[in-house]
User: Fold this.
Amino acid sequence: MKMSVSGTIMEDPRVPVSLKVSADEVKISALDTSDSDGSVLPAIYPEWLGDRAFSGTHGSRFNYVVGEMARGIATPRMVVEAVRAGCVGFYGSAGLPVPEIEAGIRAIKSSLAPEQSAWGANLIHSPQQPGHEAAVVDLFVREGVRRVSASAYMRLSPEIVRFTALGLERRADGAIVRNNHVFAK
Assistant:
């Protein structure tokens, strides 16, 4: 079966197109509303992909997660640009010393408006470094990091549970709200 696409119409998924299918050809062209023989392939918006509850919960425009590469590969600047583009960005803080993680978090916070909250940082399970996970969780809580990308966890650890529990609150109506979120990696 042959496929023909006219012009550059496939470059913009936000524009509906005309779709005609025959026994030997699929033809995609600019929408022709006077032609009743074809079908319309409706516009699609990247914002429509994925579960709307995700973007509602995390304050993102798109249901995409960016970053979380350890040892600072996913830099504070990358996180800031991801958030500004409408994605959820994760700082690659795993494997970094606590003072460097703190500097990165502060750089992110100072570059974003308070309502631009669709970001987090990477937390790696570090049984070979006693106290490191706890120190990083303390830092996250102190600095208001609400999203953690958890790496190398084979099961829940006390620190992951503590991070999550410290984000719980009860609303006036009695409902429990979870403010801290863990993304399993």
Summary: Residues 76 and 105 are 7 Å apart (CA to CA). The longest strand covers residues 25-30.
